[in-house]
Design brief:
Elements: H1 3-8, H2 11-19, E1 22-28, E2 41-46, H3 52-60, E3 78-83, E4 94-98, H4 109-125, E5 129-137, H5 144-156, E6 160-165, H6 172-186, E7 197-198, H7 207-219
Parallel strand pairs: 2-4, 2-5, 5-6, 6-7
Antiparallel strand pairs: 1-3, 3-4
GO biological process, one term: division septum assembly
Family: Belongs to the TRAFAC class TrmE-Era-EngA-EngB-Septin-like GTPase superfamily. EngB GTPase family.
Function: Necessary for normal cell division and for the maintenance of normal septation.
């Protein structure tokens, strides 16, 4: 069975997993407040206003699970969500981790510095972190601030998918071009997963594949 065929077999179990219990667990302003490392984690990273909260809500089919805001940089903590816990307080199948958005143009420098330290320390030291998802706005492609987090993940030896967001906002020809450029650049990064994911939270595009990629990450 090829890797593509194996991936396809995960789509239905991934759908069932995310159709089950999903709940907010806690926010961690620094590493002292991290939950016990009892379940595999998949972290979401992305520039402010890349559509991370909207993607999390669509991914889990929960309206308002992750907060959305027109003010970039609202997420200032590591936010943890339990997926697949059989009962309240039970051990979940996995945890999603919403990391602070980067490229915080409107945030004070001391706050930015604190966020960077928290994210860097989490990525380097979290033993249950299985994979990261680096969200890239389809309309803009990879920017220097995205490259910074990609290099950080390379150095931390954390495998990550690049995930194009807002794919419905550009023409098909433009999407094909940015997809090719993104895939080409991903191949130059040692920790980047070869599978590029293209999504639209508004149109539900690529959500089945994204869920399957997350399930694949925790089974790896």
């Amino acid at each position: 069975m090829s890797e593509a065929d194996d991936f396809e077999t995960l789509i239905e179990p991934a759908r069932k997993l995310f159709a089950g219990p999903v709940s907010f667990l806690k926010s961690a302003p620094d590493l002292r407040y991290l939950p016990d490392p009892v379940a595999p984690e998949v972290a979401f990273a992305g520039r402010s206003n890349v559509g991370k909260s909207s993607l999390l809500n669509r991914l889990t089919n929960r309206v308002g699970l992750a907060r959305t805001s027109n003010t970039p940089g609202r997420t200032q903590e590591l936010n943890f969500f339990d997926v697949g816990a059989d009962e309240e307080g039970g051990v979940p199948t996995l945890r999603l981790v919403d990391m602070p958005g980067y490229g915080f143009a409107k945030a004070p420098k001391d706050i930015v510095r604190k966020w960077r330290h928290v994210v860097n320390d989490y990525l380097r030291g979290r033993v249950v972190l299985r994979r990261a998802l680096v969200l890239i706005d389809s309309r803009h492609g990879i920017k220097d601030v995205d490259r910074e987090i990609m290099v950080m993940l390379d150095k931390a030896a954390v495998t990550y998918h690049l995930v194009l967001t807002k794919a419905d906002k550009i023409k098909a020809s433009e999407l094909a071009a940015v997809t090719e450029r993104t895939a080409t650049e991903a191949r130059t990064h040692v920790a980047a997963h070869p599978r590029l994911l293209v999504t639209s939270s508004e149109k539900d595009m690529g959500m089945a594949e994204l869920r399957a990629a997350i399930l694949d990450a925790i089974r790896a």
